[in-house]
Each structure stands twice: as C-alpha cells, then as structure tokens.
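Re-run requested by the PI after the first attempt was lost when the workstation crashed. Everything re-entered from the original request form. Ligand of interest: flavin-adenine dinucleotide.
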Amino acid sequence: MKNYKADVVIIGGGLSGITTALEIVENQPNKKILIIERGLKENFGGLAKKSFGGVFFTGSKEQKRLGIKDSPELAWMDWLSFAEFEPDDEYGKMWAKQFVYGNIDYVYYWLKSKGIRFFPVVHWVERGLFTPGNSVPRFHMIWGTGYELIRVLLQHLEKYEQSIEILFRCKVDDIWLDSNQKKVTGCSGIHLDTNEPFEVHTNIIVVSAGGITGNPELVKKYWGYQHHSKDSKIPKILLNGSILEADGSLHFILEKKGIPLHKLHRQWNYAAGVHHPNPKFNGEGLSLVPAKSALWVNAYGERIGNPPLVSAYDTLYLVREIVKQPGAYSWHIMNYKIALKELAVSGAEFNEGIRDKKIFQFLLTILFGNKKLVHTLMNSCIDFITANSLEDLVKKMNELQDEYKTDYQTLKDTILRYDSMIQRGKKFFNDDQLRRIMHLRQYRGDRIRTLKFQRILDKSAFPLIAIRLHILTRKTLGGVITNLKSQVMNNQNQPIEGLYAVGETAGFGGGGIHGYRALEGTFLGSCIFTGRIAAKDILKKI
Ligand SMILES: Cc1cc2nc3c(=O)[nH]c(=O)nc-3n(C[C@H](O)[C@H](O)[C@H](O)COP(=O)(O)OP(=O)(O)OC[C@H]3O[C@@H](n4cnc5c(N)ncnc54)[C@H](O)[C@@H]3O)c2cc1C
C-alpha cells in the first residue's frame, strides 16, 4: 500500500483539474498539490486536448472588431431560452448566470494572459430554431485548437514542479467522508500498471473526473430523449465521441455515499457521428460538422424533419428527430463538391492547419476545401459511400444496412424535389433548407464555408456521396450538484467540507448549467470558470 499526503488532491487531469491546480499554485506555491489521473501521461489534458477549441464569450475584442454588439444581458436571455430550465435546476441556473456574466473576466482575459490567441472570425453556432439561441456569433476558435490550450496551460503548470505531484495510471475508487458525511478525509485507489493500492490523506479533494459519455452503455441507461417524444428510440449503434476514462466512476462512488446526482439524462450528443477510420478503442467515433447543402434522410430515403434538418441552429432538434427514425440513424446525401467545401470534423485531430497554427494551410482549406480530410474519410471510413449514379449509391447504401432498406424511387423523388426547386431559381424557393442557406450566407464566417444553392444530382459535382450517420456521445450536461463556490452538496442540501466538483463532473457547474441545450463553446469555458472559482475558495482554507 502506497501512502500519499497533500494539501489538495485533484482527481482527474482534464481542463477543469489542470485549471484548478494552476490557479492554486500560482497563488500559493508552497502548498502540496497531488493530481491523480487514471490515463496515460501523453493524454494529460483529457477531452480538451482533443477538442476543437471553440469558446463561448460575450463581449470579446474579436466580436467588437467584427461589429458584433453583444452583452451578458443579451446572452442571458438567449441562455434562458435555450436551456429550458426546470424549477429544481436552482444551482445550475445560478451557475449559468454567474458564468454568462463572468466569462469575459474569468475566462477570456485569463486565457489571454496565459498566451492563448483566438481566430479573428467568430463562428455563429446554435442560432436557435423554434426558440432563440445565440443571437450573435460567440464561438471563438483558439488558434491551435484545444491541443494548444492544454499545451500552454501545462507549460505554466511545469513552472511549479516542486509543489505539484502527478500520478498517472492511478484510478481513484473511493472517496472518504467522515462518519457524519459532512467532511472529506481522503481517498484511495489503485495503480493500474502494478495493481498496487494507494491511499491519500487530505482535507481537500477536487473531483474533476469528467462526465459519463465515455461509456455509451451508461448513456443508453440514462437516455433522455423519451422525455420529449415517446417515439424516441435508443440507437443500436451509439458511437463514443469521448474517452474511455470518462465513465462516471466517481459519480457513482459519490452517489453511493448519498450525494445526489442531478439529471444525468441530460446529454449533449451529436447527430453526425461516423466510425473513426483508425480507432484507438472499440466504437470510437468522429463528429462531423454536417454539410449545410446535403440532404438529411432516413434509412428509407425520406427527408427527415419538419423543418428539414440543417446544422448550426439547434443540435438537440437534430438528435431528437433522428432518434425517432427507423433504426435511430440517418444518411447525409451530397456530392463531392459539397463535401469538399462544407464537410469538417469537430476536434483537433483532423484540423491540422489550425491545430498546428499553419496559417497558409488553414486558409487553403477554407478557400478550396479540406481535400485530405474528405479523401481520408472516403477511402477509409466505413460509413462513407461514393458512386457515380444514384442507382449505384442506393445499392451500396443497402449493402451497409440490415434491418431497413433505402428505396431508390423514394430517395430519387426526395432529391429531385429539392434540386428542381434550385433550378427554378431563387424567387421560387420555398424550402426551409434553402431559406436557411440564404440566412447562413449572410454572415461572412458562414458564406465562405457554404455553397450557393448546390444541386445534389449535378453531374459536374460528382461523385455522389452518402454518409451513414450515427448518434455520437460527447458531453454530460447533468452531474454532481455544487454551490456557487464549487463545493459538493449533500442530500441535506449542505456543502460537504473540503469536497469540490468542477467541470463536466459538476454538469459544468451546479449539476447542470445548460439545462437541456448548450449554446456551444460553453464547455471549455465553464471548466475553466468552475476550476478557478473552486481554487478561490480553497485558497482561503489552505
Ligand atoms: C473531439 C471533441 C471536441 C470538443 N470540442 C469542444 C469545443 O470546441 N468547445 C467546447 O466548449 N467543448 C468542446 N468539447 C468538450 C470539452 O472538451 C469537455 O467538455 C471538457 O474538456 C471536459 O473537461 P473536464 O476536465 O471536465 O473532464 P475530462 O476532460 O473528461 O477529464 C477528466 C479526467 O479525469 C480522469 N478520470 C476519470 N475518472 C477517474 C478516476 N476514477 N481516477 C482518476 N482519474 C479519473 C480521466 O482520465 C480524464 O483525464 C469537445 C470534446 C471533444 C471530445
């Protein structure tokens, strides 16, 4: 048995844990911090290291330069509209407000002070469909993606080597509370490589162990879409867009001790998942940024949704509609020209230009499309199908499907109805997807990435491409309830002395700042926000 001692123990080395540690050592370099991480050293940084690096800000310099008038008041109205909070979301709602009003001071300027830079064009995501979403663009891309975010923060952390000890490949499997369950006293676990148990005695523990989306079976167990439609089905294939280590192990350890978990059925899954061409684990998925000019159809070839599905407005609507379809999966129908211009993958891995800060390469992909990405996926992703005729495309689609089959005539009619409207000309457009493309193209950030009314069966844009899309897990919106200092609340609604939860474990604050829907880019920001706030309280106690 190994024994450790520390002033503060941080369980989980993702963005929220790293931020908490950094904020503490920068203010109190003489205290001992122990970070316990079950993953490998090379993956230090958790999900943030793989992330796209889009961060939600309200009132940034980048917005002002683009003439975007934003304010916390406007953002708070948008947030309330999108979240659909329920009466028992007391702490989540308070945290959300604190975050909307505090993100510029606590996250934006903090990141800038650490050396993080943002791309000058702010993206406009989650604009809202039936209920208002982001009234203005707020998604700020980190120049270098989440990979750079973690690289820079770790560089700062390294300056405090003497105060910080990091145990990799060590999994915590118990958190100790005193007999009244009012105070934390330590934790224990196991070294995964040697099977040697360990114990840590401490008065302060921060749980920053992420969410539950690394275990799709758990996501299925807490499936939440039936709350909105009884036609909702759980997909047979649910791709894993997270990391295996984010399996909620600590959530359930805390739950066993009587600590309430708030609404784990609120999940932020994505509609456009495909199998990773080189998976590191079984079921690993990639989340595509869907093409706006593609037609989204079900297994039979029928267009999904009324209004039809188009991304950038309401992710929850996309997922809710797809899980009502036969098999709870969908098809994205397009041609090569559309894929080249509009298709992207969310995350650091397939966006080398921006990740590696190569401005020339990045601009080339914006102007001429990401040829490397499209060809890699066409050649090695099992969900990508190409063909030079619709007959062939349908044949190949059906070779991939068992239970349901695409009907050639149905798909042909679906496409022709759309294509012929484009051919009749703009003044006769009466299709919601075309109206949305018009709307998207009004904003410079989208105009350069969205084609001007592209027909699908236009032979000059061939080959045809069909992509089978599965629902992909990504973020857990619910979690451990925390008060406004990030202290974990027990079932008597009292804070447990010395026990904190930050980032995704806490539903990004208070058990869930997002309610049912996220305005996007709010995950990275709130990991930093909750981490810094926890550190502020901890600094008063050590
Ligand atoms: C591809 C991708 C793209 C994304 N893009 C964006 C984006 O553009 N904008 C945005 O806002 N968000 C984005 N996100 C989401 C965001 O990255 C995460 O929500 C956030 O990084 C979560 O950080 P965390 O510290 O709370 O948890 P995690 O990053 O999950 O870290 C938790 C850590 O705890 C460790 N751990 C778990 N259990 C134990 C245990 N029992 N003992 C010891 N260690 C344990 C895990 O190994 C892990 O390293 C993206 C996510 C992905 C995967």
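Saved to the shared folder this time. Residues 353 and 359 are 7 Å apart (CA to CA).
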